[in-house]
Structure formats: C-alpha cells, structure tokens
Structure prediction request, 232 residues.
Amino acid sequence: KQEVTQIPAALSVPEGENLVLNCSFTDSAIYNLQWFRQDPGKGLTSLLLIQSSQREQTSGRLNASLDKSSGRSTLYIAASQPGDSATYLCAVMSYSSASKIIFGSGTRLSIRP
Amino acid sequence: GAVVSQHPSRVICKSGTSVKIECRSLDFQATTMFWYRQFPKQSLMLMATSNEGSKATYEQGVEKDKFLINHASLTLSTLTVTSAHPEDSSFYICSARDSGLAGTHYEQYFGPGTRLTVT
Prediction:
C-alpha cells in the first residue's frame, strides 16, 4: 500500500529565500507524482506533474525533481514571496493503489515579508 | 485546460437531513471520478472511486450507505451525504480522470471543493 510523507509539516522563512519541500513515498512503481498548492479554504491548484519517466519539471520559480529509486521528490521554490504562502501537497499515482492518487499530509509554508 | 466543477460550493444543513453534491467534468468525458474528504488542517483522504455505469468502490472505513455515490453519465458524479451529522462537516473535493487520456498520462483534474457544515 502506497504511503506518502511530507517533511517538514510546517515551514516559515523570510521573503527572498530559496527553499526545498520534501516528499517521500514507499512504493516506487508509480505512474506520476504531482505537486499541488492549496490556499486556506480553497481547492487544489496543480503546480507540477512529473511522469514516471521524467526526473524533473520546471515552471517559473518552481522546480520539482523525482527520484523513483529512493522514493523521493523535492519541490524547490526560488526567491520566495509572501504570495507563496500556502499548503503544498505532494500526491502520487501508483500501480499498487490501482491508479488512485494518494496525498501526503502537506507542508504549510509561510513566507514572512 | 480541463475543468471540473462542483455544486454547491458551500452548504449548511441540519443534522439528520441529506445533502447532494454534484461533480461535473465540463470539457471532457470521465469514466472515473474520485471523491475526497478533507478535515481542517489535514490532507485529502480518498473516500471512493466512482465509475460510470457501475457501483462505486469505497475505501476502507467509509460507510457506503451513508455516502451514496451515483455516476450516471460520463460528465456527472454525485455524492449524497445521508442523515448528516455534525461530524460529517468537512471539505469534499472531487476529481475526474480524462477518459481520452486513459493509458497515457492518467492525469486527474480536481474540482474546487464543497464546504459542508452540519448544524
């Protein structure tokens, strides 16, 4: 059974810093891994989707990497801004979970002005 | 891009009543839809997988008689919370898989969520 873990659970950094969010998963037989952003009381915004055959994806100041062999993914945010404050969720679709998306517990990010 | 809508976005109901939440794929067909529940400051937990024209598959611990799911068409799935209680208050999010991409990208699109409050 796939399990997804995110560390840290919460993170507070000053504006302008580069930061890394971590995601680990127990079953490496995955279709894809996706990073989402969720603002308080709101739905999900898809940030980056990495297919199983890929090692990274980039969008603007965001870069996500995938290492299937170690069961890890990182989301790198460059030059953080207060508007980046949100909860970031890692989600994995794997063969063992019958193609269902399993979410991590999330990292609550706060960027201090 | 693909859009999934949910209706209503917010609903307040009295304990003991039933409430229906709709999930629609607006510009694609979805043979498979998923329903998630999210409690405050927690992650999304998959409740059930909804397949068009067949019975939904529920995750362990989810009461199928309480959370009725109907997927009558390729663009609509409904979740009915029956005999709602305050502990059912939560944020319910649906997602839909584009049937046209089956076997390729397996990308799912998420709705904006429905905030249910049971008083």
Notes: The first strand of chain A starts at residue 4 and ends at 7.
